[in-house]
Every structure is written in C-alpha cells, then in structure tokens.
Amino acid sequence: MTVLKTSMRNFLAHKGRMALSAVAVILSVAFVCGTLVFSDTMSTTFDKLFAATSADVTVSPKSAEGAGQAPSSGKPESMPASVVSRARKAEGVKTAEGAVSSESVTVVNSENKDVGPTSGGPTIAGNWTHNDLRSMDITSGHAPRGPTEAMIDADTADKHDLKIGDELRTIAATGDHTAKISGIAAFKVTNPGATIVYFDTETAQRELLGATGRFTHVSLTAAAGVSDTALKANVASALDKGAYDIKTQKETADDNRKSVGSFLDVMKYAMLGFAGIAFLVGIFLIINTFSMLVAQRTREIGLMRAIGSSRKQVNRSVLTEAVLLGVVGSVLGVGAGIGLAVGLMKLMSGVGMELSTGDLTVNWTTPVVGMVLGVVVTVLAAYLPARRAGKVSPMAALRDAGTPADGRASTLRAVIGLVLTGAGAFGLYTASQADKASEGSLFLGGGVVLTLVGFVVVGPVLASGVVRVFSAVLLRAFGPVGRMAERNALRNPRRTGATGAALMIGLALVACLSVVGSSMVASATDELDKSVGADFIVQSDKGAPITAKAAASLKKAEHIGHITRLKGVEADMTTPGGKTVDEVSLSAADPTYAKDLRRETVAGELSAAYGKNAMSVGDKFAEKHGLGVGDELKVAFAHGRTADLRIAAVTKDDGALDNGAMYLSISTLEKYVPADRITQNEIMFATAAKGQEEAAYQSLKDALAAYPQYKVMDQTDFKETLKDQVGQLLNMVYGLLGLAIIVAILGVVNTLALSVVERTREIGLMRAIGLSRRQLRRMIRMESVVIALFGALLGLGLGMGWGATAQKLLALEGLKVLEIPWPTIIAVFVGSAFVGLFAALVPAFRAGRMNVLNAIATE
C-alpha cells in the first residue's frame, strides 16, 4: 500500500510530464483500436449487405466466378431460361425467378460523366426481381416497365443529382443502351459504395447478355419449414448433376465476403503495422520520461533506501507509475480509437465508400487488446529506468543528485551496437547480391531490423560525434549561446540518442519508400523510352477492357498510321516432353505490336511469332522447360480448341513491361476460339501518321469522347499517370507514418521539458550572471534543432540504404534504375529543423518565465 501511495504521489506530482508520455500511449492505442473498430465495422456492413442480397438458394453456371462477374469477353456467363422452370419443380421451392446481373458495365449521365463509384466499388446492371425487395425499397417512381426505362439506387442519385426523367446510358460489351430513370430505390442496409442500375428482364437480357431467354443466376426461396441445405439438395437432384453451382444463402454470402476479405485484411494489417511503428517510437518517449524522472528523484530514492526501502520496492514504485500511465493512456486511447474509426468512416464516405455509424461495431476484444497493449508496452518501456533506479546505492544517491556514468556499460553498448549494425549491413549487402528476389527479400528484412536496432543501440555513441559536427556548422556562429546548446545536447548522449532514434524510425521509413517509389517511376519511364514505340496508349482508368464498339470508334480516327489491339487469353500448354502447364496467360496482339513494344529476343524474331500457328515464349519459361525456337507446344485455349503452335521467338525477360509475356497473333486466336468467347481488348496502341502527332492525338480523343471510362495518353501522359499513382500511394503511407513522427515530436518536447526542470538551478545561475530570456530560449531551441537534425540524419541515411537495397531486388523484376529523390530528402532534412524549433516552443517559453531567485534556490 505504501508503494502505491508513493507511486500515486509521484505520478500526480509530475502529471504534466506524464501527460506528454500518455499522449504517445493514447495515439498508439487509438490507432490500433480505431483500425480494429473500422475493419470490424466494414465487415459488419458487408455481412449485412451480402445476407440481405442473397437468396435462400442461388443457382449459377458452373464456370461463373460469381453472379455478375463477367469474363474478359465482357458478357457474364449465362444459362438457358429452362433452368428456372426445372428448378421451380424441385421439392421445397416456394418461388424461383431468373436474374440477370453484370459488373462489366459503365453508366454515364446526360452530360457523358461516369456515375459509377470512384472508391473501387462495382457498377452493377441487372433486372429488377422480387429477390431485390429483400434489400431495396422503391422510394420514388416505379420499377422499369420497358426498354426505355431504368431504375437507379438512391445513393448514386443523390451523389450525382439524378432524378426521375433523367437520361442514363449504359455501356456494355454488347453495345450502348439509353433509358430514362423511372424510379429510385434505396438500400435497406448500408450500401458500401456500389452503383446499381435496373432494367426490365427482357431489356437486361438483350443489352447485357446479347440474347433473350437467358439468365446469369436463379434465385430460389424455400417453402415454410424447408431449410436452405435441404432445398439445395432437392434442387441439385432436379438439375443436371455437376452442371451448375448451387449455393445456400450462407455459402453465397461467404463467397462474397471472401471476395472483399483480402482487401479488408490488407487495409487492416497495413494500418496495424503503422500503429506498431507508433508504439515503437512511443517506447523511446516513455523510456526517456522515466529515465529523467528517476534521475531527478535520485536523492529522494536515496532517502527511501536509507530508511529501509528495498531495491524491489523502489523498482516496484517506478513500475507502478508506469502501470498508472499505461491504464490512463489506454483507457483514453480506446475512446479516441472509436472516435478515430468514426472519422475514418466519414473520410471513406467522402471518397465514395459509404459506411454508416449505425453499423459501428466495437467487439469486446478491441478494448481488451488496446488495454493490454498500452499497459504492457508502457511497463516494458519503464522497466530499464525502474531497474536502474533500484540499483542506486543510498550513499551515492544522498551524496549527488545523479549517478556517475558507467563507462563499461557505454563501451559494451557501443560494441553491441556496432556488431548489430555490421550484421545488418552484411544482410543488406547479401540481399543486393541475390540472384532471386524471393531469396534476397529474407536478407533485406533481416538487414532492416538489425541495422535499425544497431543504430538505436549505438545512437548515444553517434550522438557525440554528429552533434559536434552540427554544432560546428550551425551553432558556433551564435557564440556562447550556441556552445551552451551544444554542451546541453552532449550532456547526456544516451538521452539525445534515444530522442533522436524516435524521430529516426519514422524518417527512415519515409526515405526508404521515397527511394523505392522514385526508382519505380524512373525505371518505368526508362523502360517506356527504350521499349514503347507507339505514340499513344489507350486504356481504362479502372482496368476495364475496351468494348468492341469503342475499339471500332478508335479505328475510324484520322491521321493514324496503325492501331494495335492486345488481348489476354488463358490456356493449358503441353511441352514436347509431355509436361502440362495449366492456366498460362497468353497475349494475343496484332503483328504491329512488335513495333509498338520493342522486346529484345535471345532467339528468333518477335515479328515471326505473329505468323500462322506461331508464338513466342519468355527465356525463363524456355529455360525451365527446355524449349527453343522450332519446338511445338500443344495449346488448349480456354473455351476453345487445342492448337499446335510453333515457337518462333524467345524473348528476354529482364524488363518491367510485359515481363514473361508469351505472344501470338489475334488471327491465330480467332482460328481456335469462337468469336463470342474471344476476350475484349485489354489495351490498345496507336501510332500517328508521320508528322501528324498532334492531329492524331486529338482525333483519338474525339473518337472516344462518348466513352469517358477510357483514356488516350501519349508517352508523356502515361509517365505522369505512373508518377501520380505512385505519388498517391506514397502520400497515403506518409500520412500514416505521420502518426509515428507526431509521437517522436512529443518525445522531443518531453525531453526538453524534463531537461529544463533538471537544469532549473543552472538556468537560474545563468540568468543571474546576465543571460537574457531571449538568449535562454534561443539556447533551448538550438538544442532541439540539433537533436532533431541528428535523428533526421540517421533516419534519412538509414532509409536511403534500405531503399537502395530494395531497388537492387526490384531490378531482378525489371526495375533497374536507382533514383534518389534528393529534393524530398533535402526537404525532409530541412523540415526536421523546423520540427525541432516547433518542439522547443513550449519548453523554451516555460524556461524563459522562470523566477531567477526561485530557480537558484532549487536543489
């Protein structure tokens, strides 16, 4: 009880300093809990949606990936309407109705603007059925009654200011269809961000499937007292065995959940990873806080020991304070995490993914995880200072308000740090020399961890040298004030090293990702310059294939030398040795593709691969299967016949574009695959007639004016698109890393604040002999700047090393150019100085307000 009272007294006596450390715990716990609540809420939203939209039993074609998911031909897999009547006759069926659904569509308004989601959600077109009443209510107008009418979901109508009578154009693989809005339907559950358009059944069949009398799936409702499982068995008996996929509501919902589960998991674990980084940075802040509090209470600890307190009691007292800090910070962090989750939901709504706070899900595990993490991390961080406090001898503590530095410990620390750093550097070197990216990644991971830990351990040793260099360059010009700032930063290298290390971690990751991102863009740009001969590239912003009608419009463009189509096709291949390779991706293109994308060959000519019954393979595939020019492969095309194709060229697989691609001509594909099963164009290339580049560029854009989902880019546009895509990803990562940097800034603030308290008497004496308040504040600001620059230098140097090694591994996949983004690195380094200035504002202000006489009288 005495230990608890002492701990409570000390905790409340230093509540201001504890508050800064508590903020680190709060932020870290909040990020973890916010991530868990956000991901659980998303799961709940999708679970409700899938449960509401799934029929008791659903029948779909065996080869279909899922209702509405179209293959590359653009038309969903379908089955004859006779399946509906056959399924209806199964025992236990109350109702059976055929449904049409396709996600391979684009819907535009009267202004030719895409009304589909921008958040990655699907645009779904289909027929209105009774099963849709499970999840939708018609809030105005009526369901479509003919080919000139369509109904749209309320969320899309609100977002794009659509109303009854407005015109919509639906672009599908079979062509374009225009209709006017006859009704608006609202979801009974939260719509995460899909756009839904309904037609009458006959129109949906004709416009989405290309033929009437066919459906993509059948929705069955069970009669009273019949379970979904029993109904599934009965329907399976009534239909051709093995010809259809038959699933219960739960099975359908589970399959749909899996389709979004990987996306949710990636988001969840990525955010938890950044929360872990914030926790790691917070550990340094907490260690510094307790180390300085223990140092300031050395005399008090000596008195406690002198009157009979044991080492364990002193140790326990400090750890009890840590538990109090952890509990308070974790409780507040859990609450803040729920608020953060709500904020993330609002943010996602802003970019098109609707999440309702009504679905906010806080599982009991979330606060438990937050509390356990917060308390455990805080106690672990406080363990070393607590252990150090327990080792203070009573006489030494009473004799001096501090303990002498342990020279042997410092030497041992330096040796361990150098060994770890050396081992990490060796790991990074080994990774850079790897022949395979999969092997090198293991060494890269080990090297990153070891160099990070090594720099943290050896930080105090580095601090002495680096701070002196910075002082010579930056501080000496400020005379005595600058020299005092230098001595203050060097007074406790361990503290300076720990404070700088907290900032180092976040900036190391920023530098590493900047190098990798810049190298990716530079490599792709270099590859484009070397390999792409086409003047223009046409593709969808969302990765959708180019419809036949859009492709036909492109061919009518003027001032064009040639247009090249590129299609993807799946096939099983059998080598001359009899080995079968399943589900190989092939690229079918026009012969001009050999000019549009220059691929280096190790044998044969690529142009020959577009001849009759010919193809090319990559050199890695050829080496693996012992193939060469002249060998024949049996190629069994998906949805087509088997062909004997001669290898006419072996391409070199060392580039970033089309690495490993195998080519054949579209004419060969058309010979063995039925026309209605041939995939749509994945991408198209165009070359301008000589000297008419600008006219051709505008002509292509005019040709696709009616199709806003496609983009015409020249090589400059394409490079900018790549740069923007990488930049957007990096900005998102930098935003998440900002949490760790905020915690690191708090660490600098806390270190300076406690340092000011520790030097109260010294500051009073300096003021007494003539140091002005302005000079005092400048001294503290300079000390903060040097510490921040020290952490930035270590972090940026370490991060560039990691990034350069990662680029070496990426070079094995074709990304061969290493580019250091010096403007970003320099900006971050200079920005760190401003971070130091900002962090010093409050401590410097408080120091300047000290009463001189009271400060001198302080023991």
TrEMBL record:
Residue spans of biased composition, Low complexity class: 100-110
InterPro entries: ABC3_permease_C, MacB_PCD, Macrolide_Exporter_MacB
Keywords: Cell membrane, Membrane, Transmembrane, Transmembrane helix
Compartment annotation: Cell membrane
Domain MacB-like periplasmic core: start-end pairs: 19-236, 499-702
Membrane topology (UniProt): Multi-pass membrane protein
Region (Disordered): 60-129
Domain named ABC3 transporter permease C-terminal: residues: 274-394, 736-851
Superkingdom per UniProt: Bacteria
The family this protein is said to belong to: Belongs to the ABC-4 integral membrane protein family.
Chief location of this protein within or outside the cell: membrane
Protein name: FtsX-like permease family protein
Record-annotated membrane-spanning stretches: 269-295, 322-344, 364-386, 412-430, 442-475, 496-516, 732-757, 784-804, 824-845
Entry keyword annotation includes Lipoprotein: no
